[in-house]
Amino acid sequence: MDTIVPIIFAIFVAFILFRMTRKSRARKRADLIDAYQFPVKLNEKIAETYPHLSERDVAKVIQGLREYFHICNTAGNKMVSMPSQVVDVAWHEFILFTKKYDQFCNQALGRFLHHTPAEAMSTPTMAQKGIRTAWRLSCAREQVSAKNPNRLPLLFALDAELGISDGFTYALNCTRTDQSSAHPYCASHIGCSSGSGGDSDGDSGCSGGCGGD
Known about the structure:
Layout: H1 4-35, H2 40-49, H3 55-75, E1 80-82, H4 85-96, H5 98-108, E2 114-117, H6 126-141, H7 154-161, E3 169-171, E4 184-186, H8 187-190, E5 208-211
Parallel strand pairs: 3-4
Antiparallel strand pairs: 1-5, 2-5
Helix pairs in contact: 1-3, 2-3, 2-4, 3-4, 3-6
């Protein structure tokens, strides 16, 4: 009995230290993501792909890219699909800076963040699971109800807000989805475990995802 108490105490202390270390590491990674200076070429690529965007719009896309890395960091090894076409363009361009991208991933995420196109995912439901994870974490970060949202998180609002012609448009009111859009998706359905982010064709409302491998 005398030996059990110290062992239990030691396990408890180790657990507390582990939690503190993990939280400290998470804060450092979040600070790095917030402060990281992305290559200027990302801004140029966004403006080249979507010439109607202003400098302020392009800056908002870069903000969206930071937000995506934040939710991927929070998700750990869970796959997170990309809900924004314009942010995906920025992500693709960043990947081309292979050394910088690899260094950023290791320091900010603790692993290399792979990009997997939605059509190349191993199962038809993988992209849908990934978009639900993106929705849940985005809502949590921006204090939005995942099941009863009163507004769209940044990553889900950007394409429509910036008028991205090949982008993904998410509607809060599922009974009045904008059918004039090429990609109308119901936002609140994503927050339901039995729902999906896609439309009647089974699409997922995302252009790619990040894996934890």
